[in-house]
Structures are given as C-alpha cells and as structure tokens.
Amino acid sequence: xxxxxxxxxxxPLPDGHRFPMEKYRLLRLALLREGVxxxxxxxxxxxxxxxxxxxxxxxxxxxxxxxxTASPDVIRRIGFPWSQGLVARSLATVGGAISAxxxxxxxxxxxxxxxxxxxxxxxxxxxYCVFNDLAVAALWLLEKQSVSRVAxxxxxxxxxxxxxxxxxxxxxxxxxxxxxxxxxxFRKVASTVDIDLADGTGDAEFLAILQTVLPRVFEFxxxxxxxxxxxxxxxxxxxxxxxxxxxxxxxRDRMVLSECKRHGVPVSLALGGGYAKPIDLTVxxxxxxxxxxxxxx
Length: 297
Hints:
Blueprint: E1 3-4, H1 23-33, E2 42-43, H2 50-53, H3 59-66, H4 72-78, H5 84-107, E3 109-112, H6 133-143, E4 150-154, H7 161-167, E5 173-180, E6 193-197, H8 203-219, E7 224-228, H9 246-263, E8 267-270, H10 279-296
C-alpha cells in the first residue's frame, strides 16, 4: 500500500492557536511505531500545480494566496496566518490528494495523511481549509478521463460545504455528507445526500443510519470513492458534539471500506478533522482508520 505524507503538512502556528498542527507528525510516527504502516509504504507527494488548482478555484483567489496578497478578511476566514509555509502546506496537501487518488485507481486503495479540506470554496477558504483537495482531485481525474464518475463519502463531523459549492450540480459527482446538524458551517451547501445528526448521536444510531444510506453511493456506480474519514465525531473531540467511540469510528470505516471492496470501487482516503484533547486520542482514532484499511485490503 502507498500512503502519501510530507513534512510540509506541519507548519508553525502562533502560541495558543486551537488547530492541532502537530497531529500530522504524531500520526506518521504512531503508524510506523505500531507497525500499521512500514516506512516503505510512505511516499512524498508532488505539489499541486496552478493548472490543477484552477479546476476548482478562481485564478484571483489562487494567486492571492500564493503571492501573499490575500486580504486580512480572507486570511481570517481561513483561520491560519499567511506564510510561505502555509502555501507549501496547501499545495502539498492537494498534491497528496491527487497522488493518492491516482494510486488508488492503480492499487485499489491509497490515502493521504492530510487533507479533507472540504470547507474551501471556489473563491475563498474557510475553516482551516485553503484549497479543496477533494474537489481538485475529483476534477483532475474527470478532466483526464481517468474516471467517469466520482463519489465523495464525507463523514467528518462538519458538513462539506466547499465540496458542494464547487462540485454541486454535476451529474458525474455524487456527494454524501453525514454531519452534526448544529455544527459548523452554519450556512450549509446542499450535497447530493445530506444527513444531519443531533448533538450526542452515538455509535448505534450513527452506524444504523450509515448502513441505510451508504447503498445510494454505490447505486451511483462511481469509478472512485474519495473518503473523508474525519475522526471529529469522536466523543472526546472538542469541536465535534457527537458521541462516537473509537470502536464506533472503526466500524464506520469498516462499513465504508468493505462496501468499496465488495463493489470493486477504488477508494482514496483523506484525513479530515480531529480536535480531541489530549491530541493523542485523535491520533489513536486516525491510526484506527488505517488499521481497518489494512484489515480489509
């Protein structure tokens, strides 16, 4: 199995910043330490190109980020201070998503130890998302005619408004988002299928709903599934408001990945959100996702 990772995914942030930037490095170390991945299974992604980004974002927005001229309001909405490191991180994240998607088509499964930046809109970033890696990867493969139909399964606790802003209305993309009803973003953009969950939803209810709705993804007959496997539905997550256990998250992943394999549909994983305190709980949950990947594939 090939999984994409870059040291560029981790950049310095001001003291007290609420985003757990260290989780990327900690996840890589945990996956290797626990033998879930071997060092030979990790690969450095290429940086996304401007032409690739233009498939999903406006030229004015891309250039304002890459050359550092974005307004303070634009940067505030993203939630990270601008730096050359942020630009490199954003390009590497999208590059990792493209690489993982292409590798999944070849090998059946792949992943990127970052990404799932589903709040980035066509003309703006928000919610710690600069460029939308899922949208760019989907459009890149469709543009190249590597695939004819792509499905996004987005099980992060936050609705993927950026995915729907960029890809909504296309008949070659199916977007399924299952998320907290009262959680960010407060202005949601309709997906193909949206499932709004009440605060405190736990394992049994979450998994029962997922089992009911997931077949609709495969009725679409996608050539590729992009799986946003955010672990912020975890009970201990500080931004989640749901109540899934580690076992519940692994069963969620098992359900999605088993269906991909059963239907013969390649799947590429994006990391998605996770904001537990201590952050070790988030890292453990992400490791659990890759344990399930290895179990199934």
